[in-house]
Amino acid sequence: MSDTTTVSVGELAAELAALREEVVAARALAQRAEDRGQVENLFNRYMYLHNAFEDEQIIPLWVKEGTEGIRARYTNAGQYTTWQSVTDYHRGRPHPEGKLILHATTTPVIEVAADGKTAKGVWLMAGTESGLTDPKVAEAFPDMYSPEEVLGKKVWAHWVWCKYAIDFLKQDGEWKFWKFRCYELARAPFEENWVSFGLKNQGAFDLDLMYFGDDGKPVFMPPADEPVPSTNHPYSPETVQKLEPAPPVPHDTFTDTYA
Length: 259
Description:
Layout lengths: L8 H43 L19 E5 L2 E3 L2 H6 L11 E13 L5 E16 L1 H4 L10 E2 L2 E19 L2 E16 L4 H7 L8 E4 L5 E3 L39
Parallel strand pairs: 1-7
Antiparallel strand pairs: 1-2, 3-4, 4-6, 5-6, 6-7, 8-9
């Protein structure tokens, strides 16, 4: 005896509608996962280029010139709010002989907005920075250098830890940097621990030092477009840690959380 089940046209239509909704949801989830991977690759590509002093190649990773809301901030000395001033940070960097930086990012938390137009991410960075400096130049920053000389030059070799908070914008189907903020958390010369050096280094984030260039000469940031709305200071043995930046949470549309 066969068991025949009769399904009405209305029931079939309802089942088909439910299946269509599931397909739409699955596609949206897959797209968000793809977007997250592209965002993570974008920042990783940035760091590979930055470590190799190929910053000029980072410029195309930013949003297009004229994009509203572009912003970059690296110190308490000010922030950059035009495409030209933001990308100037990546222009004209030298390849000094003997200089090594290795910034390794980790612990990402990335959330793509439900509308698929923007994304947010935070990272931790642990790394090293080092190079050789003309002894005369080194006299201005005596605490930064190792006691020995190499090849007749002073050595600066530092441990460094930072945090990043970044907003990304999707333009013409590609993810781009839109708002970029770096928080230096701590640093210390190779021969000194970060606790004692933290007491000496509290004013460093208020300066506009960008990097050490040829012969270890300090190179300073371009003039900022506007002051920072609030300050950030690196680790000190006299302060407590706080959750800043806060990892992003699922959200529907963009809100400016890392100003």
